[in-house]
Specification:
Layout (H helix, E strand, L loop, with lengths): L1 E2 L16 E5 L14 E7 L8 E7 L7 E10 L8 H4 L15 E9 L11 E5 L11 E5 L3 E3 L6 H5 L2 H14 L7 E5 L4 H12 L3 E5 L5 H7 L3 E3 L2 H6 L5 E6 L7 H4 L2 E9 L6 H6 L3 E4 L6 H12 L7 E6 L3 H4 L11
Parallel strand pairs: 2-16, 10-11, 10-13, 11-12, 13-14, 14-15
Antiparallel strand pairs: 1-2, 1-16, 2-5, 3-4, 5-6, 5-8, 6-7, 7-9
Length: about 350
C-alpha cells in the first residue's frame, strides 16, 4: 500500500508537509531483485499536470549506478504540492524528464547495491528523502545514491517510517537548528495536529521545552498525548489567558504569519515560519528574531530522528493510507472532515 500526505499550502520555494499520508506496497518475498524481473508496478505521469495525469502501470526496474542502492519500497509518503513544482518534471539542468514517478519519501529494504557501495548491504531496512528532480518511490523499486538512505527506526512500521523524512527534518531543523530551543524554554506551535506540527510538539518536548500548541477541539487529546502541556484553539486564545510570552513560536501554517503571532513572542525570542518569508519590519517592531528557511536533506539529522523514534520519543500521526494503485487520490482534494496527521 502507499502512504500519502494530505494537501498543504506550500509556496513554490518550500516543501512543507502539513498532514501525513502514505502509500503502502507489499514487499516481494526476497530482498534480491528476481533475475528475470525487468519491470515493476509504478505510478507515472507522461505529461505535466495534476492527479489526472498519473497512471498505475508497468515500468522498467531502475538501473543501479556504482554509487547507488536499489530499494524495494514498502511504503512511500506523498506531498501533493510536488506536481506543481518544476523540479518534479525537470532534471537538474532543466531538461524534461517525463515520464516521472512521484513520491519522494520512502521506507523499504535494500535489494541491490552498486559496485562502489561498501557500508550498505542487501536486506538492510532503510528510509530517506529523494531529490525532487529524481524519480520518486511510488513504485515497487527505487534507485538512489547511497548517501540518501539511512537505517530506518524499526520500532516503527514501514508506513510510519516513510511518513517521517520531510516532515521530521522540517520540524527538527526549525526547532533545533534555526530556533536553537533550549531546555526550560517556552515553545508555541501553531498547528499542533498537522504533519509538521505534531512532530514539532514531540521534538520540542524532547529538547526539554514546555510546549503549548493550537488545535481544534477534536484534536486536543491527541496533541496533549504528543507532549503539549497546553492546547488552545487560536493565538488570540493564548494571549487572552495572560500567560508569559513564549521564547519560540513555530508557525506551520501556509500563507503569511498571522499578525497576532508576533505579539506572542517575548523580546529577543524567535519566530520561525515555513511557508514564506515573514514580515521583518513587524519582527523588528516586536524586538524578535524572524526566521524563514527551506528544509534541506541531511542524513546525519535523519539518523538523529531515527534515534529519537527508537527511544519512543517520536511517532508520526498518519492521516490516511492507500494502495499504490490509488496513489492519484492522494494528490487530489483531502477527504472531509480532515483527520489529524
Amino acid at each position: 500500500m502507499l502512504s500519502l500526505r494530505e494537501p498543504v499550502p506550500i509556496s513554490h520555494t518550500q516543501r512543507c508537509p502539513a498532514s501525513l499520508l502514505t502509500i503502502a506496497l507489499k514487499g516481494t518475498s526476497s530482498h534480491k531483485v528476481r533475475s528475470a524481473m525487468s519491470t515493476m508496478k509504478a505510478v507515472r505521469a507522461h505529461k505535466r499536470g495534476g492527479p489526472e495525469v498519473l497512471r498505475y502501470e508497468d515500468a522498467p526496474v531502475p538501473e543501479v549506478g556504482a554509487n547507488e542502492v536499489l530499494v524495494e519500497v514498502n511504503a512511500a509518503a506523498v506531498t501533493p504540492g510536488e506536481l506543481a513544482w518544476d523540479e518534479t518534471w525537470q532534471s537538474a539542468d532543466g531538461a524534461d524528464r517525463t515520464p516521472i514517478i512521484p513520491s519522494h519519501e520512502f521506507s523499504g529494504v535494500i535489494a541491490q547495491v552498486g559496485g562502489d557501495v561498501r557500508s550498505l548491504t542487501p536486506g538492510t531496512q532503510v528510509y530517506g528523502l529523494i531529490d525532487f528532480n529524481h524519480d520518486g518511490a511510488a513504485a515497487e523499486y527505487v534507485s538512489l545514491p547511497q548517501e540518501g538512505v539511512v537505517p530506518r527506526p524499526v520500532r516503527l512500521s514501514h508506513v510510519e517510517s516513510a511518513a517521517l523524512p520531510l516532515a521530521a527534518l522540517t520540524a527538527w531543523q526549525a526547532l533545533a537548528d534555526r530556533a536553537r530551543v533550549q531546555p526550560g524554554e517556552r515553545v508555541f506551535i501553531q498547528g499542533g495536529a498537522g504533519g509538521v506540527g505534531s512532530l514539532a510538539v514531540q521534538f520540542a518536548k524532547a529538547l526539554g521545552a514546555e510546549v503549548t500548541a493550537t488545535a481544534i477541539d477534536d484534536d486536543v487529546p491527541l496533541v496533549k498525548t504528543l507532549g503539549a502541556a497546553g492546547v488552545v484553539p487560536s493565538v488570540s486564545a493564548a494571549r487572552s489567558r495572560g500567560e508569559p510570552l513564549f521564547d519560540v513560536l513555530l508557525n506551520t501554517f501556509g500563507g503569511p504569519v498571522p499578525v497576532e503571532s508576533y505579539g506572542l513572542v517575548r523580546p529577543g525570542g524567535r519566530l520561525v515560519t515555513l511557508a514564506q518569508p515573514l514580515d521583518q519590519s513587524m519582527a523588528e517592531r516586536h524586538g524578535i528574531q524572524g526566521i524563514f528557511f527551506v528544509v534541506a536533506s541531511d542524513p546525519g539529522e535523519l539518523r538523529r530522528i531515527t534515534d529519537l523514534a527508537e527511544q519512543g520519543k517520536l511517532r508520526p500521526v498518519i492521516a490516511r493510507t492507500l494502495p499504490l494503485a490509488d496513489a492519484s487520490i492522494a494528490y487530489g482534494p483531502p477527504p472531509a472532515p480532515r483527520r489529524p496527521g
